């Protein structure tokens, strides 16, 4: 393509006039706020900068792509002939399961979130994410969860029940190896990473947009990430509940999913798919956003029907929580439910039709350049169309009955999911010059695409033709052998295509042509308005869209005139009151911090705890030691991170657009988001309890505590403690140190009283022979109230920390930490108000 | 007027595939394949054509040059809303009508049988266990092979003794989950006597790949004989009668597996 020779004057000079010349911006790398230089290994352990974390995510995700890819090749080799070639039954099941888990969890979403980390703050005009250290924490939790998963292979084999982890195959009687527990705990740790990340992105995107960048005007990639994290916040909370219950079944011996109980098996299916179907869109949306950006850039057109495109995505995000039972058409659900979920399933497919047509029509009147990113995005669209068409087959319930558990399903979801990967591979070529400052080699990029596209269709299309092969089985009718052999050949071609990519990226990193700020033309979004790679603080001035297009206002840096300059440009913001004062207070004294070792430390601690827990039932000293050491390190690092909060400064206001949360400060909003996910967590626990109890027979159920009085007492104790927290906040506002200390002390004592009361109750039950594994009644009782007690304990640890600081005179000039703790504590109380009647009375 | 409506309903009714589950599946599947292929070719063909037509080196590249996006602009709506919605509406009509059409068949497949049919129906309990299928007949006898008479409606009541399985006979288009603690049902009518294969369709442990069962469809008279002699033979070995019928079996997918049935996994515990 000779696009490089096309004239540049169509660029619209009037816009770039406002922007500083990109590419030649000299950044003072000498002082990077305590952050070591790029070449230093240390930098990568302490960095909290969103661009560094983004690169870490992308690189780590690519490692897991190779990991999962090698497992896929093992699967394909095993399928070369009916009955298998190289793997034993157990090994094959492990390969199938870990391939699915690694690709869906440890590759796809983190790969997308590498770009989200790098690009979203740049697109919305933020200097960093709202909580930079939590962002680093998400990454390290992710990395160590992956390490934990890797270790599971060496503990008697990893989990081997498929990525859907159906019950009761997932409980110890059927899968006793420690590695299976480790794999589940690894996923639990990954879920924690996702939750922290979702809270962070939600706060950032909602609160920290440049002036003039309303939600409606937000770039499409940022839109897809916003919807993705909304779905993640709730879907992953449901998965967290499922995984906590499963871990408890495996480690503590509860009997939720054991075969003897009527509801257990189907309960898992409900919990898993309530998460599992939104997960499909969670992994696909970022790819869709990247495709939309790439289409617009390389066709030189704005997307057709932009607002309908966004509306369609919002609709899908909402509806994604209403389709999960279409994965269960062959369970015992009845016809009306089947009909309902058939309807919602078809309903959710239609918005995608609109999105596909919008992308296709965007090409019309374009000036289309077939560069590597566009080839991948275009290919992704074609593959997604095929995935969509074959998905309609599955929406017809009568056909679904026959396709269930066959390669039709395998082929269909690979067209959709790996179609998404194709879009993300386009994204890595698209943003590679931005992230590295170098151009990749275009010829090798096209070679990669050619091999990839042919390889992809060679692997997955024959699966449609051999669709009657049962899924996760390596013994198939001999007539299908040619198709499976073709697929195996395609898999190797697909794998090899990535070697070309790695080679290309490696060589280009060293000797590639230097990339300008905007290497593409016809880009619109703000990440291209800064040099490649962007400087640490992203912008040469304060980005604003108030003038109708992107401008950088000259009030960057710690100058007290910041607010005045903003006023000078004639902007009025609704949150000016609160946020502007923040800015005046903080903006003057310090710049953003970019380094902290504590996220790494906390993740190591979490890793040790979970590794220890995996083997705890065996009682081996090693595992006990690991658990104890992990908890110790965890406490130390958490306190370390909390203490660092006084000197670590994330991005502070004033921000531009914050709708609809203009009046809520970042940390408070983050707390609200976290609590929203916690609501779903407890909701899933309560739902699980009700589901099991209904399956068991509601009235035949035996209430575990004999006497509701201790529970009632605890209700009063907790309510009183909520009142004490309110008093603490009032005391802090009044500047009364003694009042604050006394109120916090009262809270602590009431909390301890609650736990003591509960301890007595549990002690008595234990001595009557009622314990976790006694029956399904005791399992649900102890685990659900235990989860609540764990929340109380966490709250008390925080109270202890705050007591020590309050004693030293903290919080008197800034009572917000007390207020935010109060939010958490009230929430814990409210949960108890639901648990008490459910488990003591009804 | 009323008559017209009834006539119309009857005509629509005629469109809904009925019969054995093989008939139902075949007729719907091929309509979907034909339409799916057509739609796929049109859509992907159109997008490829459009991308080629507006390539930057082509004659039409300058068509929209008066209005290219520029760096830092705020997004605007973008035109062609009418075309977009027309295509969307068209695709929605295709998809919804297809699904509604198959819904009629779903109702047929799931409809409860009449009292008379229920009398003639053969009900067999199927119990999944790692890694074999046990079939329990109305006479209380059980077998590890499924023997059924041709041309008779067979109802399977399926459950599991241990983990989640899924019982399916691909050639007869019967499939349902086998869930511990619950029962699910499915039915089929086999037209051709012969030997078929049943598989497990849900990953159930190490022996999953080999969790198959032989399905023998017999002439009704041969079946009666086999059924009567069930108690005499040890369970799982009562299949001698069927061997003569093989000539008439249609070579569908189920048959191919027989050759590979001895793969490593089958050693596990097919006869437990």
Automatic annotation (TrEMBL), chain A:
Keywords: Electron transport, Heme, Iron, Membrane, Metal-binding, Respiratory chain, Transmembrane, Transmembrane helix, Transport. Signal peptide: none annotated. GO terms for cellular component: membrane. It comes from the Archaea. Residues 1-12, 24-34 have a biased composition (Basic and acidic residues). Its main location: membrane. Residues 586-842 form the Heme-copper oxidase subunit III family profile domain. Residues 44-546 form the Cytochrome oxidase subunit I profile domain. Residues 1-34 are annotated as: Disordered. It is a multi-pass membrane protein. It is found in: Membrane. InterPro entries: Cyt_c_oxase-like_su1_dom, Cyt_c_oxase-like_su1_sf, Cyt_C_Oxase_1, Cyt_c_Oxase_su1_BS, Cyt_c_oxidase-like_su3, Cyt_c_oxidase_su3-like_sf, Cyt_c_oxidase_su3_a-hlx. Belongs to the heme-copper respiratory oxidase family. This is Cbb3-type cytochrome c oxidase subunit I. It comes from Halomarina rubra.
UniProtKB/TrEMBL annotation, chain B:
This is Cytochrome c oxidase subunit II. Pfam families: COX2 (PF00116). Its main location: membrane. It comes from Halomarina rubra. GO terms for cellular component: membrane. GO terms for molecular function: metal ion binding. SUPFAM superfamilies: Cupredoxins (SSF49503). Belongs to the cytochrome c oxidase subunit 2 family. The keyword Manganese does not apply. It is found in: Membrane. The chain crosses the membrane at residues 28-49, 84-104. Residues 119-229 form the Cytochrome oxidase subunit II copper A binding domain. Residues 233-272 are annotated as: Disordered. Keywords: Copper, Electron transport, Membrane, Metal-binding, Respiratory chain, Transmembrane, Transmembrane helix, Transport. It is a multi-pass membrane protein.
């Amino acid at each position: 393509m000779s696009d490089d020779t096309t004239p540049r004057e169509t660029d619209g000079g009037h816009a770039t006039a406002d922007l500083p010349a990109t590419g030649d911006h000299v950044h003072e790398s000498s002082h990077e706020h305590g952050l070591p230089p790029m070449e230093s290994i240390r930098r990568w352990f302490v960095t909290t900068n969103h661009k560094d974390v983004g690169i870490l995510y992308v690189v780590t995700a690519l490692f897991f792509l190779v990991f999962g890819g090698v497992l896929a090749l093992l699967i394909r080799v095993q399928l070369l002939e009916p009955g298998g070639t190289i793997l034993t039954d157990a090994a094959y099941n492990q390969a199938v399961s870990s391939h699915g888990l690694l690709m869906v969890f440890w590759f796809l979403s983190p790969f997308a979130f590498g770009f989200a980390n790098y690009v979203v703050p740049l697109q919305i005009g933020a200097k960093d994410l709202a909580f930079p250290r939590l962002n680093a924490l998400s990454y390290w939790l992710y990395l160590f969860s992956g390490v934990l998963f890797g270790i599971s292979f060496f503990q008697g084999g990893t989990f081997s029940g498929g990525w859907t982890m159906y019950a009761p195959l997932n409980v110890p009687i059927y899968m006793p190896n420690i590695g299976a527990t480790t794999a589940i705990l690894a996923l639990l740790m990954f879920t924690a990473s996702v939750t922290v990340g979702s809270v962070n992105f939600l706060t950032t995107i909602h609160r920290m947009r440049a002036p003039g960048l309303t939600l409606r005007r937000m770039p499409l990639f940022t839109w897809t990430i916003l919807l993705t994290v909304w779905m993640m916040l709730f879907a992953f909370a449901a998965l967290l509940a499922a995984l906590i219950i499963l871990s408890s079944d495996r480690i503590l011996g509860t009997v939720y999913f054991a075969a003897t109980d009527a509801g257990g098996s189907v309960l898992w299916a409900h919990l898993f798919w309530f998460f599992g179907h939104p997960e499909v869109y969670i992994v696909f949306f970022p790819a869709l956003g990247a495709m939309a950006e790439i289409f617009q850039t390389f066709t030189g057109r704005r997307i057709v029907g932009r607002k309908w495109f966004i509306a369609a995505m919002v609709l899908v995000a909402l509806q994604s929580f209403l389709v999960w039972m279409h994965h269960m058409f062959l369970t015992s659900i009845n016809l009306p439910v089947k009909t309902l979920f058939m309807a919602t399933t078809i309903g959710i497919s239609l918005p995608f039709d609109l999105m596909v047509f919008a992308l296709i029509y965007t090409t019309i009147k374009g000036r289309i350049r077939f560069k590597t990113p566009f080839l991948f995005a275009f290919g992704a669209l074609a593959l997604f169309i095929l995935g969509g068409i074959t998905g309609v087959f599955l929406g017809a319930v009568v056909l679904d009955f026959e396709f269930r558990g066959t390669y039709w399903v395998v082929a269909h979801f690979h067209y959709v999911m790996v179609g998404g990967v194709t879009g993300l591979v386009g994204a890595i070529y698209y943003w590679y010059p931005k992230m590295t400052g170098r151009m990749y080699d275009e010829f090798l990029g096209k070679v990669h695409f050619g091999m990839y596209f042919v390889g992809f269709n060679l692997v997955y299309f024959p699966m449609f033709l051999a669709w009657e092969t049962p899924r996760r089985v390596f013994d198939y009718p001999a007539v299908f052998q040619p198709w499976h052999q073709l697929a195996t050949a395609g898999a190797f071609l697909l794998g090899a295509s990535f070697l070309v990519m790695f080679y290309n990226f490696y060589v280009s990193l060293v000797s590639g042509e230097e990339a300008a700020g905007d290497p593409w033309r016809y880009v619109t979004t703000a990440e291209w308005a800064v040099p490649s790679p962007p400087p640490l603080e992203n912008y040469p001035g304060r980005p604003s869209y108030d003038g109708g297009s992107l401008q950088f206002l000259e009030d960057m840096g710690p100058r007290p005139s910041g607010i005045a300059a903003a006023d000078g440009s004639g902007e009025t913001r609704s949150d000016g009151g609160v946020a502007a004062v923040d800015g005046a207070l903080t903006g003057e004294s310090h710049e953003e911090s970019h380094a902290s070792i504590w996220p790494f430390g906390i993740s190591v601690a979490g890793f040790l705890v979970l590794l220890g827990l995996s083997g705890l039932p065996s009682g081996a000293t090693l595992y006990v030691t690991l658990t104890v050491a992990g908890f110790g390190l965890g406490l130390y690092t958490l306190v370390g991170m909390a203490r660092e909060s006084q000197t670590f400064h994330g991005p502070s206001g004033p921000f531009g657009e914050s709708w609809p949360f203009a009046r809520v400060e970042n940390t408070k909003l983050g707390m609200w988001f976290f609590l929203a996910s916690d609501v779903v967590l407890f909701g899933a626990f309560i739902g699980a309890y009700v589901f099991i109890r209904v399956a068991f027979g509601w009235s035949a159920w035996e209430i575990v505590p004999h006497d509701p009085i201790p529970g009632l007492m605890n209700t009063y104790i907790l309510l009183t403690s909520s009142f004490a927290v309110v008093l603490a906040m009032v005391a802090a506002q009044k500047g009364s140190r003694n009042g604050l200390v006394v109120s916090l002390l009262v809270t602590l004592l009431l909390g301890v009283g609650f736990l003591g009361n509960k301890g007595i109750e549990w002690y008595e039950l234990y001595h009557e022979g009622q314990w976790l594994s006694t029956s399904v009644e005791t399992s649900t009782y102890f685990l659900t109230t235990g989860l609540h007690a764990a929340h109380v304990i966490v709250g008390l640890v925080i109270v202890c920390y705050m007591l020590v600081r309050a004693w030293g005179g903290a919080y008197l000039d800034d009572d917000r930490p007390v207020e935010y703790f109060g939010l958490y504590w009230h929430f814990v109380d409210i949960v108890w108000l639901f648990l008490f009647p459910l488990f003591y009375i009804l | 007027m009323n008559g017209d409506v009834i006539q119309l309903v009857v005509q629509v009714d005629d469109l809904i595939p009925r019969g054995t589950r093989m008939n139902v599946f075949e007729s719907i599947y091929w309509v979907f394949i034909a339409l799916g292929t057509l739609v796929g070719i049109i859509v992907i063909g159109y997008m490829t054509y459009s991308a080629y037509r507006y390539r930057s080196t082509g004659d039409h590249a300058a068509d929209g040059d008066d209005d290219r996006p520029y760096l830092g602009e705020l997004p605007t709506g973008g035109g062609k809303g009418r075309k977009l919605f027309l295509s969307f509406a068209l695709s929605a009509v295709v998809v919804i009508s297809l699904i509604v059409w198959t819904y009629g068949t779903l109702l047929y497949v799931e409809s409860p049988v009449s009292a008379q049919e229920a009398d003639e129906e053969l009900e067999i309990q199927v119990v999944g266990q790692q890694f074999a299928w046990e079939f329990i007949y109305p006479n209380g006898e059980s077998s590890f092979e499924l023997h059924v008479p041709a041309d008779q409606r067979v109802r399977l009541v399926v459950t599991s003794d241990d983990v989640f399985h899924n019982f399916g006979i691909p050639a007869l288009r019967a499939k349902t989950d086998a869930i511990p603690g619950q029962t699910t049902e499915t039915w089929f009518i086999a037209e051709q006597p012969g030997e078929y294969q049943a598989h497990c369709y849900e990953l159930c442990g190490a022996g999953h790949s080999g969790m198959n069962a032989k399905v023998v469809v017999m002439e009704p008279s041969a079946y009666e004989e086999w059924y009567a002699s069930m108690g005499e033979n040890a369970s799982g070995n009562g299949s001698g009668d069927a061997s003569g019928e093989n000539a008439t079996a249609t070579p569908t997918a189920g048959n191919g597996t027989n050759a590979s049935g001895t793969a490593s996994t089958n050693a596990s515990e097919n006869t437990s």
